[in-house]
Amino acid sequence: MIRIFTFLLLFISSVSAQIRPGQLWPDTDGQHINAHGGGVLFHKGQYYWYGEIKGKNSLAEVGVSVYSSRDLKTWKNEGIALKVSEDPNSDITKGCVMERPKVIYNAKTKKFVMWFHLELKGQGYAAARTGLAVSDSPVGPFVFQKSLRPNAGKWPLNFEEEWKKPRAGEDTLKWWTPNWYTAVKEGLFIRKHIEGGQMARDMTLYVDQKGKAFHVYSSEENLTLHIAELNDTYTDFTGRYITVAPAGHNEAPALFYQDGWYYMITSGCTGWDPNAARSFRAKDMLGPWEELGNPCVGEGAELTFKSQGTFILPVQGKKNAFIFMADRWNPKNHIDGRYIWLPIQMEGGKPKIYWKDEWDLEVFDKKR
């Protein structure tokens, strides 16, 4: 009897360790995890998953959630990391848009630093700002500091001097024409927003091998990615940044580092509808970056398995083990959005992602 009971416990434990992409994912209270467009921080033996708290629509009515876990499968709801404000004059007043929150830890200041995409209430997606909040604890409360458009008055490092000059008639160019593509590459939108700062929407944070932090965001009407260096406290921009894939229409950036290369996976821009993922790599965060193509393989690859990436999670204690985190959005009922977590494997120097109905972390221990 004892042996049977032990076997059942082992079986239940094995089953519970499975990650099932696209399925309901209950927390320890039995509620579907509400952490959309999120990212994960590992700190002192614990993972912390931050994400958008969704209701029926896409507006921020509550704020940013945080969950904790030691095994990446079982998650405890730690509550609201960053609350929306009841002050109608606050940038993060209830009813604004707060998306893709990411948190990094600053060892010098011992602060947890959150940046997120912010749209001001009642303005749709016109504001295109990034917001900052800081906390002494990984579970919060995070205190909102400011919002801004990055790098006002600063030109990209990979920008030529002659591109800084205004060009007659450039605002009348027809989109998606050869002349327009050239104009975007040569700074059409950079020049337009140089005084007030560059647009910043879908974003992620990344800390490199030397502890230098970068804010990566979709800019220029979501046409071009910017990779911007943060200061030593991770709370402001240094003014050093580059553009990546001008007019390539990339958003949802997610990054990891392996064997001397930085890799980035992004998506196209098709609203709530899925599209084919893209991938890039570089030897340095500030480029140059080269395109590698769609990292997804097999049936459903052309739609990133009906999802959109949000973060790449390094698995602690396992060498070169990374999880591609993505959201399967449900615009008719946002709270029901599902999570697509899949292991990344490398083939010929390129990241590859295959669909799995269910899997566990032991996949990283197997010979690939």
Write a structural description.
Helices cover 8% and strands 39% of the residues. It is globular. The protein is mainly beta and 368 residues long.
Annotated CATH architecture of the domain at 27-148: 5 Propeller
Q: How much is the radius of gyration in Å?
A: 21 Å
Low-confidence spans = 1-16
Percent strand equals 35-45%
Secondary structure category: mainly beta
Mean pLDDT over the full residue set: 94
How does the overall form come out from the CA principal axes?
Answer: globular
CATH superfamily of the domain at 27-148: Glycosyl hydrolase domain, family 43
Please report the first level of CATH classification, the CATH class of the domain at 27-148: Mainly Beta
> What's the total number of strands?
21
In the sheet with the most strands, the strands line up as: 17-21-20-19-18
Ends apart, CA distance between termini: 39 Å
The number of helices is 3
Compressed to H and E, one letter per element, the order equals HEEEEEEEEHHEEEEEEEEEEEEE
Q: Percent of residues in helical segments?
A: under 10%
Question: What is the third-level CATH name, the topology of the domain at 27-148?
Answer: Tachylectin-2, Chain A
Largest sheet: 5 strands, mixed
